[in-house]
Amino acid sequence: MKIVVASGKGGTGKTTVSANLAYALARRGGVTLVDCDVEEPNLHLFFPGESEEKGVPVPVPAIDPERCTLCGECGHFCRYGALTVLKDRVLFFAELCHSCGGCLLVCPSGAVTEVGREVGVVNTSHPLPGLTLVSGVMHEGEVLAPKVVAAAKEAAGEEGRIVYDASPGVACPVIETLEGSDFCILVTESTPFGLHDLDLAVRAAAALGVPAGVVINRSDGEDETALTFCSEHDLPVLMTIPFDRGVAAVQNRGGLIARDLPGWEERFAELWVEVARRCEVRA
Ligand code: SF4
Ligand code: SF4
């Protein structure tokens, strides 16, 4: 079963929920945790350990000057401005290339071939018994986050229990993360801003046909607005994490409440059981 932990924006506690859930599952037969927040992966901070690194290459054009007639077709075609045809050569700006392969198709002289260029890496580690951590890391200045997300998902495989920690927001990397998943846990706070972002995330999940439920984080006990939103959108509230001193203290020092506070490991395990039940009902 593959589930995504997402949120409409950063700082809502999405990574905290992923890490605690993974900890509880690692203690119950195993889990693969996938950091799909490739621009700012940070799950390795909760679970440090030796990792194995694998590059993520994407195809980019290589132009054979012997064959190139400088006709300009590739430069016209490339909507990302990665190719500029000058009087005597073609300039290629690798960071702008989206690897669409179009220049290869439009070149009338067969002057374009493809070569691999690394845009990121995928790190795999086993920091705890029962826990495999796969982290996608995009190289600085690159634009192809979805390719790194896809590579991280591929490295995690399809077997067993898989938790994907998505990027904040609802941009392309989040859509790539949601694709093919069985369920989406949306983490929110009970504030008007939080709900606006949650609304966007709910729509993204619905558009991809991924069922969703909500975890309310940093609850002060006055969650009526969030509860009303959830009931209006037919979203189950799967868990509420209170804003209390004990929880805040553990989180502020980068700890895991599932490991450090009594009762929370069981609560996160129950969260998984509830998600699994909903997936089964749907299947
Ligand atoms: S592969 Fe696509 S994006 Fe890259 S240079 Fe060619 S046309 Fe432009
Ligand atoms: S389309 Fe082919 S031949 Fe024309 S400028 Fe580009 S690489 Fe050269």
Describe the fold and architecture.
The protein contains eleven helices and eleven strands. With 283 residues, it is an alpha/beta fold. Strand 10 (212-219), helix 8 and strand 11 form a beta-alpha-beta unit. Helix 5 (145-156) runs parallel beside helix 6. The longest helix has 19 residues, at 264-282. The chain is elongated, with a radius of gyration of 22 Å. The termini are close together. One iron/sulfur cluster is lined by residues 61, 77-78, 80, 82-83, 97-103.
Oligomer: single chain
Give the CATH level 1 class of the largest domain. Answer: Alpha Beta
The largest pleated sheet is described as: 9 strands, mixed
> What gyration radius follows from the Cα positions, in whole Å?
22 Å
Helical proportion, percent range? 25-40%
Q: Give the percentage of residues in beta strands.
A: 25-35%
Rough outline: elongated
What string gives the helices and strands in order? EHEHEHEEHEEHEHEHEHEHHH
> What is the fold-level CATH name, i.e. the topology of the largest domain?
Rossmann fold
Do you know the CATH architecture of the largest domain? 3-Layer(aba) Sandwich
The total tally of domains equals 2
Q: Give the CATH superfamily of the largest domain.
A: P-loop containing nucleotide triphosphate hydrolases
The total of helices stands at 11
Protein name: ATPase
GO molecular function: oxidoreductase activity
Pfam families: CbiA, Fer4
Organism: Methanofollis aquaemaris
